[in-house]
Amino acid sequence: MASEAKRPIGLFRNLAAKIAAIPMILTALVVFLGGTLWTVTYSFTNSKLLPRADFVGFDQYERLWATERWQVSIENLMIYGLCSLVFSFIIGFVLAALMDQKIRFENTFRTIILYPFALSFIVTGLVWQWLLNPDLGIQNVIRSLGFTNFDFNPLYNPDIVIYGVLIAGLWQGTGLVMVLMLAGLRGIDGDIWKAARVDGIPMWKTYLFIVIPMMRPVFITTLVIIASGIVRLYDLIVAQTSGGPGISSEVPAKYVYDYMFQGQNLGQGFAASTMMLLAVAIVIIPWAMLEFGGKKRV
């Protein structure tokens, strides 16, 4: 028809939007991809205070994995990461399920639970450093009530110090998980709940076999958010323990920072950061292939 002009197809569709996205794409390529390649390349060098192209092969990686401090940091990250994922999902989902029952003062409770997420990790770490102080915090309060044998000082015990850090992390992050889960629950069609009640299906089975599978996108989003926070764990450690007692609460991000900016050993810091990147890639790439590499959904 004469009134219908030819519409742009293929590459020229939404041309204005694509042109507007060019600066963002170039920035991502230069800053992220370029910085990543630069870091990986110089991790094979003997760079100290300044980068230099003095390639030494895998020497930095051999030194890295032979260092007790790095081994401890990896162990701590695995413990913290696994516990954080499990408890964040369980506590967040339970709180969201309770909130979804249309309880009174829901907005007030939701605000109180979410409030810690508005605080920085430094503030959270300092607060829980005081709360877990045996002379000032929870232990002192309980003992003043007459329970003189009560012992609760995880930040001063090398064997369980990472769990003391975990308490602070869960306190801050669980509220966000609850809000994400609550948004997913509120998106479930009300007819599903009505049908389950009519069929006499217990509520726990409705959650387990119907609701949770329908919330898969929410769980994936939450997983990505929590995982990114776990890998970047640094502020909380510095505020609570500074890596102590000794090296018992070291984490990879602090190891990288200390070697790059305090130890003046860029090559070792680059090698450690490359291993962190590799760990993330091992998790993200298979998930992305399963999520987006299959047959296109109709």
Assembly form of the protein:
single chain
Distance between the termini: 31 Å
Count the E strands.
Answer: 0
Rg result? 25 Å
CATH classification class of the domain at 72-250: Mainly Alpha
Per CATH, the superfamily of the domain at 72-250 is MetI-like
Helix share of residues? 55-70%
CATH topology of the domain at 72-250: MetI-like fold
Structural class: mainly alpha
Number of helices: 13
User: What is the beta-strand fraction?
Assistant: under 5%
Q: Which regions are unreliable across 5 or more consecutive residues at pLDDT < 50?
A: none
Q: What does this entry look like structurally?
A:
Its main location: membrane. Belongs to the binding-protein-dependent transport system permease family. InterPro entries: ABC_transporter_permease (IPR051393), MetI-like (IPR000515), MetI-like_sf (IPR035906). It is found in: Cell membrane. Residues 74-289 form the ABC transmembrane type-1 domain. The protein has 298 residues and is mainly α. It has a domain at 72-250: MetI-like (MetI-like fold, Orthogonal Bundle), CATH 1.10.3720. Helix content is 67%, strand content 0%. The protein contains 13 helices and no strands. The protein has helices spanning 15-42, 59-65, 68-99, 106-114, 121-131, 138-144, 161-186, 190-198, 203-214, 216-231, 235-240, 252-262, 266-292. α7 packs antiparallel against α10 and α12 (252-262) runs antiparallel to α13 (266-292). The longest helix has 32 residues, at 68-99. It is flat, with a radius of gyration of 25 Å. The two termini are 31 Å apart. The model has no long low-confidence stretch (mean pLDDT 86).
